[in-house]
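Researcher: Batch entry, complex prediction.
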Amino acid sequence: MAFDYDKYIRPGKLPHIWCPGCGHGIVMKGLIRAIDTLGLQKDNTAIVSGIGCASRLPGYMDFCTLHTAHGRAAAFATGVKMAKPEMNVILVGGDGDGTAIGGNHFIHACRRNIDMTYIIMNNNIYGMTGGQFSPCTPTGAKASTTVYGNPDPAFDVAKLAIGAGATFVARGTAYHATQIDKLIAEAIQHKGFSVVEILDDCPTTYGRRNKFKSVIEMMNRLKDIAVPVKAAEKMTAEQLEGKILTGVLYKEERPNYTDEYAKVIERAKK
Amino acid sequence: MAKKVAFLQGNEAAAQGALYAGCTFFGGYPITPSTEVAEVMSVELPKIGGKFIQMEDEIGAMASVIGASLTGAKVLTATSGPGLSLKQELIGYACIAETPCVIVNVMRGGPSTGMPTGPSQSDVMCAKWGTHGDHPAICLTPASVQELFEETVRAFNLAEKYRTPVMVMPDEIVAHMRERIVFPEPGELEVINRTAPSVSPAEYKPYDTSFGDVPPLAAFGSGYRFHVTGLNKGQDGFPTTKAAWVQAEEERQVRKVDANIDDIVQFEEYELADAEVAIVAYGSTSRSARFAVNEARKQGIKAGLFRIKTFWPFPEKQIAALAGKVKAFITPEMNLGMCTGEVKRCAEGKAAVHGIFRVDGEPINPGQILEKIKEVK
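Model: Structure tokens for the complex:
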């Protein structure tokens, strides 16, 4: 029997705002399957986002949903989680939202290792505002504000998260749709701050400017550059040139923030 | 039993007031001269199972309290000048998403870094106009340590009652002075909690105006699932660009305060019955003003004091009425004429308005005010 996504979608809230060929819907379906696999209760799960195309996701989902201000999802979510640690808190958003204007909140959520899961849909561009370059736009790429080619180097979101102290970091792509739910489910199950970067595509504002002839070409690129971490172990540096590792990139057990704060409460009450 | 009496600093009293009001969450960022509020909350909140978090920046602090408030907690943040500027975007978010929260902003010199340890009253306009767009504003300006405690309790009540952010804005003198404070007994001061929904989760809409201008607010994690956004929204909480809905919601948000001015505005009238010169003052400056009024009366000058306790909404009606009775207003303040402009607006030319402005980090002393009284009487 086909999977029943409607169980988790708010009645009357579709169609979504995403363009044809955008990968965000693939990620949303992956998130729904992960939630279903884990049996998370709708009443006890908050989905929090910032601003941008990807950040419109919570509005479609039948949970406690919080569409915050640009870049601030992690900070709002931290308040939710601290005040009600028993809730599952899932953050979603794009690369510009999460790593530029929200970069500070992102790295500090990693550092605190607060038990939340952050799904970053990285399509290398500010899509909603019409295609300006983001901190994840590759050097040399074209955007509406880099018509002569992007002079900026790009962030590696996963390395940034690991460096800042996130204890679970995974990467998937919108092409590898059936892997997304597994990565997200494992991330949610992980006790601590988990980051799942999904390499995504924006045919409308990135693809057209950067000589991708079709969505299929953009998707094929994701297929071509992705190398599972296990496979990469057997590959040479030369073979890995231009490739991106996918799968669970980092995992570590470390005390999480709300558990640690519970100990603060115990000490204060003595 | 004798009441508990203490010798307390203003900022400490604000924190104690918050706890009295039932605050269980504080999110903050260190900034002079408000940091003691955070320090006290970090000590006291975990003792009662509450949560204190020091966030990565002022914006994050504001975000954390809004997030926590949506789970049903009573929330506080504290800041000062530059921090208030940084918080403005999310103060607007709390206004449009109608999320109760209290912000203690200790006024120091500005703009920018200004004079971090010097007193000022130059944030009062920022309290009303700081965030973009039309929005309600409530701002309280206490003048003593005791009042800072009580007004913080009232700020929580107003935030919860009207589902909106409320600012408590002591100047640095009030926030850092130490005075005797008599703690109210539990139950002595009114404590208001937000109205919880009376309908089932299936029927619940977060901005359902069939319950009036202040719709009940459910808590995340309590069985009610709803959407919160900073976009213009309909009564169901979902984004809309439908013109009639947006207009109605915007007007209602502002009306929550505008239609309840008499419930919100508090002030003190001192020696005003026969006054020919009325001083309009707030915060620590009002204490110098009271002293000056007493001195003027000793010298046979009919001076009085209108002390603003609620700066926003501004006591327009009261100032307008006074303007018909007095010859002149004197408006001493530690800025270059913010309250003065409001008094002029309300006086509509019926009485002269003479400002005394200080932005040099020094308080306005009674002598300065007395001199002006003699000059304009």
